Fold each of these.
Amino acid sequence: MMLPFKKCPVCGGELKDKVVEKILHGGNHTAVLLINAEVCFHCGERLYPEETVRLFEKIRNKLKRQDLSGFDPLGLAFKVDKKWFNKQTQPTANRAFKLGDYCNV
Ligand SMILES: [Zn+2]
C-alpha cells in the first residue's frame, strides 16, 4: 500500500511508520485498536491508508448498531458527573488564577 504523502501535509516533517493506539467512537460506545499509521516526527500528525480509514468507519458503524461481535470488553467508560465535577472545582473557583497555576498534563 502506498500513501499519497511522503512528507507531513501539515508541517512538511518526516513521516515514520508506527503502530498507534486509535480510539473510535460510535453511539455511546468506544473501541480501541492498535494499527499502523504514518506518524509525523515533528508535529505528531497521523496519516492512515484509505483501507484503514474505511475500517475505522466500519468499526464506528458497528458500535452505533451495538454489534459488538469481534470486540473484547475493555473495562467501562464513564462520563464525569457534573455535580461531582463542580464539587471538585468549587474551592478554587473563587480565587483568581495566576499564569503559573496552569500546567500541561
Ligand atoms: Zn507534521
Amino acid sequence: MANSEIPTEQWAQVVEKTGGPAVYKKIPVQKPGPDEVLINVKFSGVCHTDLHAMMGDWPLDVKLPLVGGHEGAGVVVAKGELVKDIELGDHAGIKWLNGSCLACSFCMQADEPLCSHALLSGYTVDGSFQQYAIAKAAHVARIPKELDLEAVAPVLCAGITVYKGLKESGARPGQWVAIVGAGGGLGNMAIQYAKAMGLNVVAIDGGAEKGEACKALGSQAYVDFTATSDLVADVKAATPEGLGPHAVLLLAVQEKPFQQATEYVRSRGSVICIGLPAKAYLKAPVFDTVVRMITIKGSYVGNRQDTQEAIDFYARGLIKAPFKTIGLSQLQDVYEMMHENKIVGRYVVDTSK
Ligand SMILES: [Zn+2]
Ligand SMILES: [Zn+2]
C-alpha cells in the first residue's frame, strides 16, 4: 500500500564518515517492509545524541553512511501488508527506539528499549533527518491529529526520556527534584514534566540566561554553577529543611555533576543518570551511599506506553518547552552551536527547507 505521490528521491542530511560533517544531499526514498511504515517527516528535533552519533563518541557502532535524527514528526504515507492498526494519513513519530523483536523476555515485560535486537533511529538505522523515514509500525509514536507536528517533535526523544527518568526516580507529588542541565533541551522538558507531575524543581545550570528560562518554565529555584562557590550547599539550601532534593535528574553532558549529585541528594533519595558524557564514570562514596540509603540508577528511553503517556501530557497543554525552527539544510550549524554548548532550548529542523 502506498501513496502514488511519494517521490523516488528526497533531501537528507547524511553523515558519511565518523566526525562528520553532515552533508545535505539527495538520496533515494526507501520502501517499507511488511511490518514497517514510511513516514513523510515534516519536522525533526535535534538531540545531543545526534552529535554523539556523528562524532563516534559512544562504545556502540554507528551505521555509516548515516541519516541521523530520532525526533521526527510526520504523516504515514505508506505501510507494509502486516500493518493493521495505523492508516495512511495518520500522524506518527520516529523515536530513538525504531524497532525491537517484541518476543524476548525484555520486550515481553515492556522493557523493549533493553531488547538485544533493538533498532535505533539515526544510529543503527537511518533516522528522521530526511523527508521520508522508515520505522517498525509497532513502535512509531501515535500522534493525535490536532497536535502541531513542529512543537510535538521534541517530545519524541527529550520528552519521553525525561518523563521516563522522573517515573524511574519514584519522586511523588509534592516532593523535590533537582534537574542538572535544566537549561538545555532535555532540561527544559524535564522542568515542565516535573511540574505537571506535581513535583517542585531546583534547576541547575550555568549562566543568567538559562536561569531566566528555567524560572519562566516553572522551577522554584535556580543554582548557577558558574556563580556559586558551594553548589552542594546551595542546592540543599533550596529545599525544605535544607535536606536536599528527593531525586536528582542528571541530564548534563559533563562528568563533574555526576560526582556532586550523591552529596546533595536527600537521604533515601535517588540519583537518576540520563545524560551521557563521553567516556565518563560514576563515582560515589560507599559510606554515604550506604548510611544515607542513596539509590543510584540509570534511566534510558521510554517504552511504548511511556511514549503515549508523554505525548498525552503534551496534548493536555501541560508541556510548552521552547524551540527554534530552522531548515534541514542548516543542521550542521546546530551541531556547531551544540559543540560550543551555546544552545538554550531545542532546535527543530523543517525538512522542506
Ligand atoms: Zn535524543
Ligand atoms: Zn526483544
